[in-house]
Amino acid sequence: MTENDTAFSQLKLISKGDETAFADFYHLFEKRLYRFIKSKLNDSFEAADILNETFLEVWRKAETFEGRSKVSTWLFGIAYYKTVDRMRKRTDIPMDSDNFPETVDDSPDAMACLLTAEKSDHIKFCLDTLKAVQRAVMQLAFFEDLPYSEIALIVDCPENTVKTRMFHAKQAMKRCLSTRMGG
Questions:
Q1: Which of 10-14, 32-36, 39-43, 130-134 has the lowest mean pLDDT?
Q2: Which of 28, 51, 98, 129 is most exposed, with the fewest beta carbons within 10 Å of its own?
């Protein structure tokens, strides 16, 4: 049974008030979801708060999941919007503005070689300098290993916009890493 099949079965039970299924569902996604949320906010307490809000939403709305996407896509979408809402409350800067020209990038594995232990501090620093929308697509693509089509569903934008954001995120990462690592 795949993770999605397991999660879907758990959602059906959760929609009927099954607390054990909810606990199992929570444990299945807790770490990945927390890491995703924390990467956006860089605040452990707020990330934990949003994690709990996300799972509370799952408890309340489990019956609304229609199976048109993977369960993880639905769940990460809830977390993404709760995180964006929190970020909007913290700043007046619009989180979804992306004033870049459309440029398509079809190479999601281009950064894989950069993810080594000795470079992780530089990578984390550079990730934190990205715009929120760019950091989100990079996090979902590289650390959650999601395809662009699922990322588009999570962040609610066209797939080509995801590709554009990824292109610009990679360019910014290359510039930042080059500066930090003297390349």
A1: 39-43
A2: 129
What residues contact residue 180 under an 8 Å CB cut-off, 6+ apart? 122, 125, 126
> What are the C-alpha distances in Å from 7 to residues 21, 25, 131?
9, 6, 31
Tally Cβ neighbours within 10 Å of residue 54: 24
Work out the mean pLDDT of the chain and round it to a whole number.
82
List the one residue out of 130, 161, 142, 173 whose CA is nearest residue 36. 142
CA distance 150 to 7: 17
Q: How far, in Å, CA of 30 to CA of 133, rounded?
A: 22
**Spatial CB neighbours of 144, under 8 Å, sequence gap ≥ 6:** 32, 36, 72, 76
Residue 116 has pLDDT above 70, yes or no: no
Task: Note whether 109 and 148 are within 8 A (CB).
Answer: no
